């Protein structure tokens, strides 16, 4: 249910507009816009850490990994035992349940919510950074605490009625953000002296592993596969949509990564994200800096609302089950629901304060969860479902 909710917010407006199903190109567009987010902000810095040659190689490896993982997941979703051909397993959690039973469903679901909450924590850190850049007062931890206070009452809203408007605002601001980052990098390349020397490669294995995990994070799209497959006119053509989306993401992210690194060089190692390099928290902001910060605020706000909802709804279900079991009154149950949602936001803020870095959070999430969701879990699910269906792998 929760994975379905996470995906539903991202493709719901498309599904409503085309009741008969969406085309391959529309599906590719939905995949792309579901994935594009804060992950792109850390790509240039990651390239500075591992070197431009190694970074490009790892970036392409990550793109291949996520595409192959999406392809395997597509095949897995069509392998529901004792079902008519063409039946699609509806959610990522359901895949775990069908393949491995209740414990599998729980693990898939818990992993999903850890990743979603981790991204929310990163969004709070990014929002704090932007607030500091705009105001030049207080510090990151204080601003995170302020945004926790703002997020708590927002978390009490059970449903956002205008999901379509929310999606439009998020997509528009994301496109503006991309354009501003590219424009700022080009301007910096043209108007400033070379920030070189540049790092070509590193042989540190831990840096290589961390960089690969970071590159996987913004490219990971298998999570949205169940909902988009169910929304397509021809679900069997999902791999084509995935290939188109992957190609577009490689071009998009590759442009940001290469331009960002060549514009700012190894000076990126002193910043958390490319946004901090373009619009630093000290000094006077340029026009591009202001536009960048405003775009990020809108991106963060829309993404936070969308990503918070699935875990909040899961907590609602858990609290409702406990309330029924213990015979609690409706008022007490409501109080517990609001308290659990508030606690979720506070926990995300605490994680943000602990890491105090979008880059570190993205690397951690990539290594801990995204690689599992993008490749490992689809692969073992495919093997398990083939076995349950009595077919050779």
From TrEMBL:
Q: Where in the cell is it found?
A: Membrane
Would you tell me the Gene Ontology cellular component terms?
A: vacuolar membrane
Domain Amino acid transporter transmembrane as annotated: residue spans: 21-388
Q: Where are the membrane-spanning stretches?
A: 24-43, 50-74, 105-126, 138-157, 163-186, 198-218, 238-265, 277-298, 334-355, 361-383
The record's section on Pfam families has: Aa_trans
- Bilayer topology: Multi-pass membrane protein
Keyword Membrane part of the UniProt annotation? yes
Question: Could you tell me which InterPro entries the record lists for this protein?
Answer: AA_transpt_TM
Q: Which UniProt keywords apply?
A: Membrane, Transmembrane, Transmembrane helix
A single GO molecular function term of this UniProt record? L-amino acid transmembrane transporter activity
Name the PANTHER family on file.
AMINO ACID TRANSPORTER, AMINO ACID TRANSPORTER TRANSMEMBRANE DOMAIN-CONTAINING PROTEIN
Q: What is this protein called?
A: Amino acid transporter transmembrane domain-containing protein
Q: Which organism is it from?
A: Perkinsus chesapeaki
